[in-house]
Amino acid sequence: MRTLVAKGLSVSARLAGQTVTVLRDLDFAIEPGKILGLVGESGAGKSMIGRVLARSLPSGFAVSGGSLAFSAADGKVSDLVAMDGADLAQLLGDRIAFIPQEPLTALNPLLTVRAQFGEHLARLGVPANDRDARMIEALTQVRLSGPQAVLERYPFQLSGGMCQRVLIAMAFASNPALVVADEPTTALDVSTQATIVQIMRGLQRDHATAMLFITHDLRLAARVCDEIAVLYAGEVVERGPARIISQDPQHPYTRALQAANPPLRGPLTRLVTLPDQMPGLSALANLKGCRFAPRCPTRDASCEVAPPELRLLAPGHWVRCAPTCAGFRPPAPPITRMSAQASGSEPVLVVDKVAKHYPGKRDWMGRRGRGVDAVQAASLSVRPGEFVGVVGESGSGKSTLAKLIMGLEAPTAGRILIDGHDVTAASTATRSIRLGALQMVFQDPQSALNPRRPVERLVTQTMEAARSGASDAERLARATALLAETGLPPELINRYPAQLSGGQKQRVNIARALCVTPRLLVADEIVSGLDVSVQAQILNLLLDLRTERGIGLVFISHDLAVVRYLCTRMLVMHQGLVVEEGETDAIFARPQHPYTRALLAAAPPDDLDSPWPPSGPAQATLGAMA
Amino acid sequence: MRPSPRAKAAWRRCLTNPRVVTGGVIIGLMAVVAVLAPWLAPHDPQEQDLLATLLPPMWLAGGEARFPFGTDTLGRCIASRLMYGARIALYVAVVAATGAMILGTLLAIVAAYFGGWVDWLISRAIEVWMAFPPVVLALILLVGMGADVNKVILAIIVIDWTRFCRVIRSEALVVMVRDYIAAAKLAGFSHRQIMLKEILPAVLPLVITMMSIEMGIAVIVEAIMSFVGLSVEPDVPAWGVMIADARQTMHQAPWGVVLPVGAIFLAVLAFNLLGDGLRRALDTRLVLGRAEAA
């Protein structure tokens, strides 16, 4: 018996007068006690499936074909697409439970955990005097220490990981037949992710629950799931056992996805990137054949005529691709992370025991509350052309460090030197020293690009500043050069941010920082919001910029694999302290500080035979921190 | 520079919004009448015809075609006086709302941008200001400064800048946390450049919306002030003056009061419709909310 069987499931949308097939002909099945991973980049339609289940498709979207058969424990089979809305509502939250992406927004901030969990249990028909015991049992199962106390808390008093555990406890409270988890760990830190995944898998195995695990992270899916379906532009391009899909994928897209992911172990080669990006909804209507064909390195004329059939390669391993292109692997030249001539020269930037203390708020008697030490005595130096990584989880003070370096915040102690000049104190002189040497690339291009400026005026913003006095012609010429340098097509020059894709926005963001030809870029989590394939494009762009311009980089990230790919040296920050510093390779090989060890252990390794999530001392360290 | 697609979309939303169109058309017509009053009005607004006092409008029994809306106690043409009265009303609406907008928006952006003690000072000033009942404050100001239509405008500006300042400040605070403000600082922008080129365009839709509503308020305030004789000279035709004059004979000739009240009502309704429509068309949160629902 299979819990959920999708057969030929299609979803169409009406867009500007024409009908677009958003999800095309999906087939998948989940057995009880198994986890099916739906892997895809943003826009692939992976969240659409959860919405079909919950019948909350955006207006204009409708299921246009196929079925979604759900078998409850009693053996009754019902089609979730065709069944009555009231009957479906009975199933949802009870037989079919959801674990959301944003744990903090999924809980009502005005109600205690007890109130919300209790309401859920009341809906499930648990008598009032049993509810407390049930809640405490459920919270104990998700390893929340002091469940009695957690019940009385409000969501904002809990960390993201704790909220997610409460939501997992609620999802499993009804012992559902199917759990849909939509990116359940994306909003969480790496170390929390490991714990959450472990808890989820434990509960799912104990209850023999079928699970649909929606994620963008192929590496995580490989660890978590039994079977993986890879989605591209609304189609399943490859489906099979998790081990095969992650180790030896056959579809060119799955391979590209795998090749775009920087590895955590082993030799580094240049990431292979695909051109362009996934077609948007409006572009789908014009794609008659294989939806991946325009970006496929192995396409031929036949690919563009008709969509390829799903072919069975091995038992349980299906691929939607023509038989001709099997075995193609793009060349991946090795990379050099540090140019030799740069290592000897004087540092561009020296940060000397810099600290930032935020004083607490005054109360009504004028007494100050306890402040926060966001950064405590952090030191680093960057030579020309050197890439230095700063790794830490949320709240580690890494973003504050970036702001201190850029002069957006004033340090409470320590010194910052650029080319030997002290720029710690803010003044006109220090500002102009900084402006010439340092620029920042911001994390979220949505927020960092003024939506009312076209690309040309965004990338040449520094030329608009009072002193420069550049003419319009000069600005246009500079903007054209910057677009070329960051790999953006010249026709984007008059576009506005809203008309650009995520990757293009991040390139504009980088182009703006390059306008004054700085020698050092400070990049704060600049790839964390991007899809893997776009991330690879941006990482390669940064490497090229170093080769061409000898630019240096302070790269702030939570992602160890990305830092390993780019940076020769790295710092590990934890609660405002630099706990470890050194050569990247040395730290990866022999981490000294327990926190670094725990962090390294928490990232899912590429080698599927090594155990993950970690157990033993590393797990204990993280458990204490989560 | 060609208009951004965002601006174009905003225009389209404005022009297809029934509230904006209705309000805009009424105000447009009023403005045309006010400007062309010397040519459109059948009589001089001060011209008295003592043989034809308290005539009813032409469509009622006893009305005359040469006085379309009838006459007042001194035999002056109500239609002509309404047309000239629109000049005062719209003049006050535009100048007072613009003044309050400039003062309020300027202080709001300065407060949000600099924060700290500047913000504290401006915010406390707003709180103190708003504690006064506005009409009483206006009366006190006008008694102190003397009666004049420009003093009325000054009083409206001095009182109502807080209305702009409070709302625009909170909107500007939202913009301040966006990274593009930090990026502008790193690009070497001066304080003035950041405030004018980055913050002001972001709060502009709200400013436009609030200005329209403020114009409606200014029309009412001017009518109240001229009713109590603190605005225009008694011989200048203003809607408030007309109501005050016709008050004595309200029972014999109700149209003398009803028509100027109707004019005020229409003007305020039009400004409020326009403001409400602009808010719906320009407020990004409302627009986005609808786009998500759609």
Helix and strand arrangement:
The complex is a heterodimer of chains A (626) and B (294).
Chain A: E1 4-15, E2 18-30, E3 35-39, H1 46-53, E4 61-71, E5 77-79, H2 85-91, E6 96-99, H3 103-106, H4 113-123, H5 128-141, H6 147-151, H7 160-172, E7 178-182, H8 190-206, E8 210-215, H9 218-224, E9 227-232, E10 235-241, H10 242-247, H11 252-260, H12 281-284, E11 311-314, E12 317-319, E13 349-358, E14 372-382, E15 387-391, H13 398-406, E16 413-418, E17 421-422, H14 428-437, E18 438-441, H15 445-448, H16 455-459, H17 461-464, H18 472-485, H19 502-514, E19 520-524, H20 532-549, E20 552-557, H21 560-566, E21 569-574, E22 577-583, H22 584-589, H23 594-602, H24 617-625
Parallel strand pairs in A: 3-8, 3-9, 6-7, 7-8, 15-20, 15-21, 18-19, 19-20
Antiparallel strand pairs in A: 1-2, 1-4, 4-5, 9-10, 10-12, 11-12, 13-14, 13-16, 16-17, 21-22
Helix pairs in contact in A: 4-5, 5-7, 7-8, 18-19, 19-20, 23-24
Chain B: H1 5-15, H2 18-35, H3 37-40, H4 78-114, H5 116-131, H6 134-145, H7 149-176, H8 179-186, H9 191-227, H10 239-246, H11 255-282, H12 284-293
Keywords summarizing the entry:
heterodimer, A: 626 residues, alpha/beta, Rossmann fold, 6-stranded mixed sheet, 24 helices, 34% helix, B: 294 residues, mainly alpha, MetI-like fold, 12 helices, elongated
Description of the molecule:
- The complex is a heterodimer of chains A (626) and B (294).
- Chain A starts with a strand and ends with a helix.
- Chain A is of the alpha/beta class.
- The radius of gyration of chain A is 26 Å and the shape is globular.
- In chain A, helix 5 packs across helix 7 and helix 7 runs parallel beside helix 8 (190-206).
- In chain A, the strands form 4 sheets. Chain A has an 8-stranded mixed beta sheet, sandwiched between helices.
- Chain A has 2 domains: 1-33 and 40-95 and 179-186 and 214-323, P-loop containing nucleotide triphosphate hydrolases (Rossmann fold), CATH 3.40.50; 340-359 and 371-590, P-loop containing nucleotide triphosphate hydrolases (Rossmann fold, 3-Layer(aba) Sandwich), CATH 3.40.50.300.
- The model of chain A has no long low-confidence stretch (mean pLDDT 85).
- Chain A has 24 helices and 22 strands.
- Chain B is mainly alpha-helical and 294 residues long.
- Chain B has one domain (17-293): MetI-like fold.
- The model of chain B is unreliable at 288-294 (pLDDT under 50).
